[in-house]
Every structure is written in structure tokens, then in C-alpha cells.
User: Fold this.
Amino acid sequence: MSTAAQPKDMKLRQIKGPSAYEGNFKRFVYLTWTIAITEFRSHYFGSFLGPLWALVRPLMLFGVLYVVFTQVLRFGDSIPNYPAVLLLNIVLFQFFADSTNTSLISVVQHENVVRKMHFPRMVIPIATVLTMGFYLVQNLIAVSVFLVISGVTPHLTWLLFPLVVLGFIVLASGFAMLLASLFPRFRDLAQIWQVATTVLLYGSPILYTVTIAPPGAVKWLLYNPIGTLLTNARAWVIDPAAPSAASLMGGRVYLLIPIGITLGIFALGLWTFNREAPGIAERL
Amino acid sequence: MTAPVRIQVRDLHKTFRIPRHQYSHAKERLLHPFQAGEYDELNILKGVSFDVHAGEMFGIVGRNGSGKSTLLKCLAGIYRADSGSMHVAGLLCPFIELGVGFNHELTAFDNVRINAVMLGMSPREARARFEAIMDFAELNEFRELRLKNYSSGMQVRLAFAVLVESGADVMLIDEVLAVGDAAFQQKCVDFFVAKRAEGRTIVLVTHAMEMVEALCDRAMLIHDGEIETLGDPHEVGQAYLRRNFVGEPA
Assistant:
């Protein structure tokens, strides 16, 4: 940076104050990557299992739910490959829940840096989502081993699965930006979002599939982007015989609703964060 | 002075709005949906203008709450100014309130890397400079220690070492010399003198008048958000002492 050989631009430039992005893409990427990697390595620092905890947590939740839904409530029997569906759904939803809940407090958590350094503020929630993305990749590798062991055969539609992950990333990033920028103003958001996460856990087809939901509810479950993504994940990855979200809704055109919601939340998050970023250091 | 201008500040205003009632709870919002909330306006900077040149060490003094740190934070791009303009030339590195921003849960290595990237280095450059930073800070044996286990003096040393290696053209230094020991203070002073000779710009906020008089080329006294005296460091130092002990303007 300061190598003497490099001629430097010593013209006066205006100081405009902090903002969300600041226009230097390379620096944005470097910083996001460095922070995400560091968080990934240090989050479970000192614990025996380290980052494997990110895998153990969904596995334990899976274990409990699996016993409840196949031994106690017994509706798991009516869904082919229920364990595989349940595990994949939990891992994907956990990415969403962890990304949003951690992003929400992220700007406040990084207060020390935000109040003393000049850098694009958007890096903080995006790096948080990226960190959770690393855990997601780790967990998906474990899930794919589980799938093969439990008798799911790989097929060509597995190639469509990145679309599901992309959908979750866009949705989680949108909420991450929205929540991170509003939390310094409205501290109740932490509690509200925890409740919302629980509502989403049960209100989305995660522990069950849309195919066993009451017919009148199917459409509504699929207008929820999480419902669409998980339904397609099941059809593409686990059970080619399972119906896709589009066919359940009665046509591809209906996909525009969950896609529109996802992009709308992303745009709202982007807009809100941009608006809040210049003054966010003063509100901490 | 004929040296080129590196910092140019014109009619800078900064006001903080402190809510009188904290309406950040949803229940209160629901109970008072149309009440916008009353604010106390804190006028911290009221039209500050000055220039700092290349190869200059510029002192800023003033009593607590006079607006020194707010001024530096505006210059560093951490706070947005309400009106007026600020221009800076070259790479600017801030050192606000005893240090660059560190995360206390992370090790020295991680903190240094993140800070270096924030200052504009690539991750590779940041790794390459890590050794030099730890050498300057004399903290090589504690590189894997988390920052929360560092003493305050060690933290300042580490932060200052990042600044040293940043290669900044303009340095904004807020009270760096208050915590370190005598040997470290001398190291800092030597560094400032060497950088000034290279034509870099150093803005020093401090309460140590002997430092201002011995080191600074010019200085200014800020009182209540306005520049009260700007010019000869000795005169500014005297004005500062009068402000402190007599309460009178210069």
C-alpha cells in the first residue's frame, strides 16, 4: 500500500463520512472475506469440537425431532425418506436462523471497530452471512454423506440444488441488512426476531412437508419463500417423485410470489442499510 | 507555509441529537405512536475551519468535551458532518481514543489482519506486514493471545504499531502517549519526527502541553466547539492553561 515505488494520488479529496458500500469493490470483498474467515475460526475458539459444533447442533435437534415425529406423533411415516428430508430442512433453516439472528446484533457487537475505523458498514452483516455460509457448506457435506447412507441415490437434479442455496443466501442477506441496520434504533428487535424465527420454524414446511398439509394451506405455505425452497430441495435432491413447488401452486407463474418476496426483502434491506449506515456509529 | 495542504476543513458543523426519552422500546412506541420524540441538541462543532500542511505536526488542544475527538472522528470518516466541507490528501489513518478498533475476543494476529485490511491493504500484504507490526510493538511472544488478556499499554502498543506500518500520509492521533511507558513514548516521538521529515502530516490531540510546545509546528485550542486560538504552539499552550485554571479566554 505504501510502497515507495507506487506513485500516489495526493490530490485533496472530499471526506463524505461513512456509508454502506463506499464504491471500492475490491476492498469490500477483502474485508468481508477476512472478517468471515476470522469469525469462522474463532467463534468456537477454546471448545473441544470447534466449528464442528455447527454440525452437532442441527444433528441433535434432528435426533430429538426425528424421535418425536416418528415414534410419538408418527406422521413421519407418511413421508418417504422422512429422516433425510428433516435433516436437510433443519440444516438449511439453521443457516437462515443463525445468519439473521447473528447479523441483527452484529453492528452492535462490532461497536469497537465501528466507532473507531472508517470502512464500508455493509461489510458487517454480509460477513456474518458469509461465516454462516461456511458452516452451511460444512454441514451440507455431512448431509450428503447421510443421504447416501440412508439410500438416496444421486441424480441429475442435484445440480439444481445451488439454486436453493442461492435463494436462502439472498433471503438471509436481505433480512441481515434490514435487522442489522434497525437494531441500533429499536433494541426490541432482538426479542421480536427470536419469536419470529420460532414462528417461521413451525410455520414453514420444515418439520413436515407441504404434501401432508391441509390442501387449503398448501398455497400459503409455498408463498413463503422458505416453503418453496425446501419443497424444491426435497424434489430435486431427495425424492424425484415428490412434487415441485410450481406444480403444487398450479404453474410456474406462481413462483413469482416467493421470488418477489425474497427480492423485495433484499431490496428493502439494501435500502434501509444504505439509509442508516452514515449515522449508525452515532447510535451505538 | 508553502508546503501543499493535506487537510482542509471549512466551516465544519456537527450536532448530536440526544433523545430526551429513549423511545427505542416498542411498547413506548405503541403508547406514543405520533410523538416524534424530543431531542436535546448538542452542538459539538460550530463552524471549524483550518488547514494542515504536508510535513507538519499540528496540535489540537482543548478541555474535555470541547469537540476534539468529534473533529477527529469527522475527519476520519466515522461521523458524518452536518455541514461544511473536509478534504484530505493521501492515505489517512486514524488513532482514536487509545487505538484503532480492536475486537477483544480475537487474537493479536486476527485483529492486526482485520485492521490492516480496513486501512486498505490486501490480505496478503496484511499477512506480510504482521511480523514487522509485532516487532515494532515488541509483542512477539503474545501474538496468539486474545486482546482481552492484553494490558492497556500492550493494546496501545499494538495499535500504534499498526499505524506505523500503515504507511499513512495523514495520521490523526488521539492521546496515544497517555498509556505507554517512557520507552514507548520515546519510540512514538521518534516515529513522529521521522515521518514529519518525510513530509507526512501528523495531527496530535493531547493534554500534554510540553509535548505540543516541543513537537508541534502549529497548534489550535478548541473551546466549546469553536477555534479559540490557532498558531504558535507556545501561545496555544498558554491559552489552554488559562482556560483550565482561570476559565478565561486567551
